[in-house]
């Protein structure tokens, strides 16, 4: 991949609202060249989506859980067919194939703890080849996708020295 495209990806990852004109200025290229590079990145599905990072704790109280899933892979399709079956559920936000003690890491969102528990027990655990699950609830997000959600407050106490 060209150096220009890598720079464009870094700048768009940092702020997807940057215009081609601004990016061109930042990387020292022509606007038409930047627009063509972005169009190629989109056509090649390297840029898949432009997204906004939202601090949901300030909007509503969604429940997010990370679920470790141990599975027996299928003979022909390995982990892929089971991962696909899982990621097609609308509650599922992310699915990752992992190394280590478990095979898949599944991130889901629900309105309540009960809704998440119902998903795990009724949908996820009942899938053939799912051996076990371990659910971890996210209590607070400090940082996501490089964005710090809460600014560090300055300590305004007076310094006392002996």
TrEMBL record:
Residue ranges of every copy of the HTH asnC-type domain listed in the record: 1-80
A GO MF label: sequence-specific DNA binding
SMART domains xrefs: HTH_ASNC (SM00344)
PROSITE patterns tied to this protein: HTH_ASNC_2 (PS50956)
Alphabetic keyword roster: DNA-binding, Transcription, Transcription regulation
Pfam families: AsnC_trans_reg (PF01037), HTH_24 (PF13412)
InterPro entries assigned: AsnC-type_HTH_dom (IPR000485), Dimeric_a/b-barrel (IPR011008), HTH-Siroheme_Decarb (IPR050684), Tscrpt_reg_AsnC-like (IPR019888), Tscrpt_reg_AsnC/Lrp_C (IPR019887), WH-like_DNA-bd_sf (IPR036388), WH_DNA-bd_sf (IPR036390)
Name the UniProt record assigns to this protein: Lrp/AsnC family transcriptional regulator
């Amino acid at each position: 991949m060209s150096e220009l495209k890598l720079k464009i990806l870094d700048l768009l990852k940092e702020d997807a609202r940057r215009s081609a004109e601004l990016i061109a200025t930042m990387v020292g290229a022509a606007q038409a060249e930047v627009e063509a590079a972005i169009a190629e990145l989109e056509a090649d599905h390297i840029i898949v989506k432009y997204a906004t990072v939202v601090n949901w704790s300030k909007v509503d109280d969604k429940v997010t859980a990370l679920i470790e899933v141990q599975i027996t892979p299928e003979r022909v399709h390995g982990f892929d067919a089971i991962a696909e079956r899982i990621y097609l559920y609308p509650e599922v936000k992310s699915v990752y194939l992992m190394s280590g003690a478990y095979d898949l890491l599944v991130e889901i969102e629900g309105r309540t703890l009960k809704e998440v528990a119902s998903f795990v027990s009724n949908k996820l655990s009942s899938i053939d080849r799912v051996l076990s699950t371990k659910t971890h609830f996210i209590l607070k997000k400090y940082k996501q996708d490089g964005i710090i959600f809460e600014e560090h407050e300055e300590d305004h106490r007076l310094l006392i020295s002996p």
